[in-house]
Amino acid sequence: MFDWLFKRGGGTDHASRDDVRRALDRITGIAPQLKLANRYEARLAPVIGTTLAFARELVSALPPPRDAKPDAWAGDAHLRAMFATPEDITEVIGQSTDVRNWFDAHIAPDHVYAVLSSRLVERRVLGAALEGGVMRSDVARTTIGFDDKRIRICDESDDALRHNIVQRVIEQLTLEAVSRVAEQAARRDALQEHRALLTARMQMLGRRGVGMSSLIASTDLAGDATRLQRDFEENEAALAALGSVADAIEMQLQTVIDLLAAPEALIHVTQRTLCINQMNLLVEDGSDECGAQLTIHLAHMPMQPPQTRAVEFVRIARRDMPPAGSTLEGAENWVL
Q1: At the top level of its lineage, which domain of life is listed (predicted)?
Q2: Which helix (H) or strand (E) holds 45?
Q3: CA distance 18 to 24
Q4: Which of 18, 109, 127, 132 is most buried when burial is the number of CB atoms within 10 A of its CB?
Q5: pTM for the complete prediction?
Q6: Residue 336 to residue 67: CA distance in whole angstroms
């Protein structure tokens, strides 16, 4: 998302007990087996405070919500850069089951606050440009586009939405920890299978040279045994490094603690300011061409695979939600 430098927060001093409790409930909701670990609450609370403080700083730096409404398209350079036409805004809103479900569940509010995310696309093309007072048609230009636009994570107000996202940062880091532990478990299984294979080969080697088989057995039995023994020891060392199955819960808790202690290593935001013309062509520094300044925020998230998405807060009016069934089929399967 932006050029900011994020420092670690001050831990639980900046996080209320309620916030820590809600975060703890979200963590154990994803990984309930952590409740079996020794002193799990006391060990998680300090790093939860660290991540909450970090996430608050991250979220509070994002600009206020923008009204995502078709009738604002003509006068808003940002909306014109993201959406080709006013109808595109309506289409993206209609494709969001999160927005539709929120309005269905909340009859009174006229607006909902949500996160609009998209994939920033930059392409090199040949186009026209003014260079030294002369218009040329064969100049290499960069087009700016926003694909795969999705509106998710809805709430009743700007503050509520930001608080929701802070808690979701906790969830995302917990999911990453669970994924890493699962990878370790898969590697342990593979190493155990390999150990069984090495054991069988060592047993076969021990029988070589017995009876008449000595007539055709390899003369380098000692060398074969040495190589197998080395492979076996390397396998045992790798298994020992992963820990035993009995240590799996403790390992999972420690992985969660490690990720929550340094959230900035996995989740961060960078800011880019671009100057683009009405054709969404990038206006280079020093150019005589007129363009509008566009500031975008790119969120880098630890997903599988890792993703970078342009994100912003938007406010959506109930009246701009098209009737159900009027948008593209299959849109209900879209996710952030």
Answers
A1: Bacteria
A2: helix 40-60
A3: 10
A4: 127
A5: 0.75
A6: 20
